[in-house]
Design a protein that fits this description.
The protein has helices at 2-48, 52-66, 76-80, 93-97, 102-113, 127-137, 166-177, 199-207, 222-228; strands spanning 71-74, 117-121, 147-148, 192-196, 211-214. With 231 residues, it is an alpha/beta fold. The protein has two domains: 1-49; 52-228, Rossmann fold, CATH 3.40.50. A five-stranded parallel sheet has the order 3-2-1-4-5, with helices on both faces. Helix 2 (52-66) packs across helix 5 (102-113) and helix 2 (52-66) runs parallel beside helix 9 (222-228). The protein binds magnesium ion.
Length: 231
Amino acid sequence: MKKRSNAIILVIACVLGILFLIQVYNLRAMFATTAAKTPPNMNIDMETESSPLERKCSDAVDKLVDLNINFLAIDFDQTMIDIHTGGRWKETVGELMQHLRPVFLQLVPIATQRNIRIAIVTFSPQTNHIREVLEHAFPTIAEIIPIRGNDQTWTYEGNGMKLGKQEHMASAAEELMTKPALGVTDIRKNTTLLIDDDPRNIKKSLKDGTRAVWFNPRDPDRLLHDILRLK
Ligand SMILES: [Mg+2]
C-alpha cells in the first residue's frame, strides 16, 4: 500500500516537474521574441528620422523643382567650403574636406535625387583637389558633377557671355546635356541657379538673365531661406 502511494507521489512529482519545465520554456520564448523585436524597430526609427537641416534642404529643393530649376552651379571657395584656398591649397585633400559646409553635404544629394544636376564653377585651377573632395563627400554621384575651374582643360565656344562664372556654367551645362541618360536635356538660363559668395559673379549672372543667389559666407544657413524666397 505504501509502495503504491510512493509511486503515485512520484508520478505527480514528474508531471509537475514537466509542467514547470514547459512553463519556463514558454516564458523564455516569450522574452526572446520581445527582445528580438525591439532593437530592429528602434533602428528603423533612427534610420528614417531626418535631421532639421535635411528637412530644410528638402523644402528648398521642393522650391527649386517648383521653379523648374534643373541645374545648380555652385562656387567652391568660401561657398561649398568655409575657407578661401586662393587656388593654392598645399595641405591634404582630407584637411580640405573638413571645410565642407554641412548645408551642401545635404543639399547636393537631395537635389540630385530630384533630378537637379549639379556643377562646381570656380576660378581655382586646383580642380583635381576639388574632384577628390567630391569623390569622398558624394561617392555615388561625384562622377555626374562636372567641374569648371581655371585649369585650362576646357574652352567655351558658344555665343554666351564669358564674364564671371557665365562661361563656366555654359560649358558645364553643355557637358550635362550631351548625356541624355542623366535625364536633363534642356538647361537654360532661367532653369539655372548660381550659388556664389562673390557678389560680382551674382551681378553678372543676373544681368545675363541667369538666376543667382548670393551666398553669405558669414551666414551660411541663410541660403535655404533665400532659396525659399525665390520667385
Ligand atoms: Mg567663392
